[in-house]
Amino acid sequence: MHHKTVLSQSEVIRIICAARAEAQLNGWAVAIAVVDDGGHPLALERLDGCAPISAYIATEKARTSALGRRESKGYEDMVNGGRSAFLSAPLLTSLEGGVPIQVDGQVVGAVGVSGVKAEQDAQVAKAGIVAL
Fold this sequence. Notes:
Protein name: GlcG protein
Distance between the termini: 26 Å
Shape: globular
Mean pLDDT: 94
Oligomer: single chain
Strand content: 15-25%
CATH architecture: 2-Layer Sandwich
CATH class: Alpha Beta
Strand order of the largest sheet: 2-1-4-3
Number of strands: 4
Number of domains: 1
Order of helices and strands: HEEHHEEH
Pfam family, one: HbpS-like
CATH superfamily: Haem-degrading domain
Structural class: alpha+beta
Low-confidence stretches: none
Radius of gyration: 14 Å
Keywords: Plasmid
Number of helices: 4
């Protein structure tokens, strides 16, 4: 029988708080989503001044990263490299800003961020994960 690590609510809160702190430190109005390893939402926060669509995009970035077991940037790189077929892949967004959460080599969830430049979204997501 296999055993798997799962994110607890206290860990999810730590991720959200650290990501929020990174965004606020830089003056970035973003949405932050945390999902489990199946891409199911665990938390979502949209900071003041962030466009409503960013909440949807952040969640999709996180879901893509969790299900794909990689950063969503990898899919963006594929599309930009000419593999436009990825634009029609179901349950996939090819936008940077989704980062998997790994524990002992296992993906246990992901963080997705949207609202600023792609690399800044990823920076905020990674800051959240470092809190673990």
